[in-house]
């Protein structure tokens, strides 16, 4: 088969790799029908995640069809359409028993496209399939469902739940990329008074408006002052940091009110300064986290019921064999306007029936 192979910082290629096979009784092999690119994949290509070894197939999000399962797999079988979660879970270790699948000690956690071959390929082996793939609800397309492999559970769990968003809150989302946009959608479930989106790019601020942000502000236009003006000088109840650079983190800590929450979601490749000389007296709660994906089944049901619309987040689609082009478009999002790119099989909206002889 072919897959997108990491060859070191700044180097990757869509090339031939060995077909995956069932290695353990809990494995499943999935034929990939839809896959997307994550900001974390860009961090890997920059060299920010040194644990990823050259030769690894990247990717940790996919929708596909089960083609083979190990002898211990009970919940899915060949032919099932499934979501491949970005997190795998052994289900037995201390952290898995607490629902903290991202911290799995039994060989799971974030391993796809990180410590083992990932999903940006024609086929992928998924360990611990019973807890790590999810049958697709009826009526949910693969293009929509793939957004629930990572960005929606990440935004919901690490941003909205960790940030303790409550009715009537002012929520500031710093970064209107895919995770930030998903956080805007997910925060709406808790009826905050207002959601403010902050970003560098006007195109992403426009997307934030379409997805429900009540106010948007470019970094150049003093977001701290806007937040202060809208909250009578108090600051935001919750700030969700969804970028992962020192400047966005420090901006988030300046915009939060005393007693508020800063929920860091962004993947940081460099140190950021924590200004405790200012924060120590403000009763601010700061949370970090890797997604656990324990919310994925619930989010999938909500998406199937139309409670979490996703279609406007997918801006570009490609066939799988244009993976390198898709990376280029996604990596230049400020120029291309890309939010989420989805790769997969060609869509067949009409059926051509040959005329009778």
TrEMBL record:
Pfam families: ADH_N, ADH_zinc_N. Keywords: Metal-binding, Oxidoreductase, Zinc. Residues 1-21 are annotated as: Disordered. It comes from the Bacteria. Belongs to the zinc-containing alcohol dehydrogenase family. Its cofactor is Zn(2+). Transmembrane segments: none annotated. SUPFAM superfamilies: GroES-like (SSF50129), NAD(P)-binding Rossmann-fold domains (SSF51735). Residues 8-343 form the Enoyl reductase (ER) domain. PANTHER family: NADP-DEPENDENT ISOPROPANOL DEHYDROGENASE (PTHR42813:SF4), ZINC-TYPE ALCOHOL DEHYDROGENASE-LIKE (PTHR42813). This is Zinc-dependent alcohol dehydrogenase family protein.
């Amino acid at each position: 088969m072919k897959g997108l192979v990491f060859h070191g910082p700044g180097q990757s290629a869509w090339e031939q790799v060995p077909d995956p096979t069932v290695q353990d009784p809990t494995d499943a092999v999935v034929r990939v029908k839809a896959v997307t690119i994550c900001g974390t994949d860009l961090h890997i290509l920059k060299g920010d995640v040194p644990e990823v070894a050259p030769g690894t197939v990247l990717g940790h999000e996919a929708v596909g069809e089960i083609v083979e399962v190990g002898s211990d797999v009970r919940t899915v079988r060949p032919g099932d359409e499934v979501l491949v979660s970005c997190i795998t879970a052994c289900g037995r270790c201390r952290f898995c028993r607490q629902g903290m699948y991202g911290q799995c000690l039994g060989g799971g956690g974030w391993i796809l496209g990180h410590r083992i071959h990932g999903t940006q390929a024609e086929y992928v082996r998924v360990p611990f399939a019973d807890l790590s793939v999810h049958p697709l609800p009826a009526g949910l397309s693969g293009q929509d469902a793939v957004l629930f492999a990572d960005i929606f559970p990440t935004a919901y769990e690490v941003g909205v739940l960790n940030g303790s968003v409550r009715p009537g809150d002012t929520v500031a989302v710093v970064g209107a990329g895919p995770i930030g946009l998903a956080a805007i959608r997910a925060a709406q479930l808790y009826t905050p008074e207002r959601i403010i989106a902050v970003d560098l790019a006007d195109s992403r601020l426009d997307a934030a408006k379409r997805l429900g942000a009540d106010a948007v502000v470019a970094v150049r236009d003093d977001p701290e002052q806007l937040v202060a003006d809208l909250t009578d000088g108090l600051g935001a109840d919750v700030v969700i940091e969804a970028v992962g650079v020192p400047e966005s983190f420090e901006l988030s800590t300046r915009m939060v009110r005393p007693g508020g929450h800063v929920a860091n979601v962004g993947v940081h490749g460099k140190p950021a300064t924590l200004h405790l000389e200012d924060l120590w007296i403000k009763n601010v709660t700061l949370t970090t986290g890797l997604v656990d994906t324990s919310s994925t089944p619930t989010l999938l049901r909500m998406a199937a019921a139309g409670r979490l619309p996703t279609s406007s987040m997918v801006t570009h689609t490609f066939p799988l064999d244009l993976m390198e082009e898709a990376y280029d478009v996604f990596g230049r999002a400020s120029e291309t306007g890309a939010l989420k790119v989805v790769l997969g099989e060609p869509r067949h909206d009409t059926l051509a029936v040959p005329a009778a002889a």
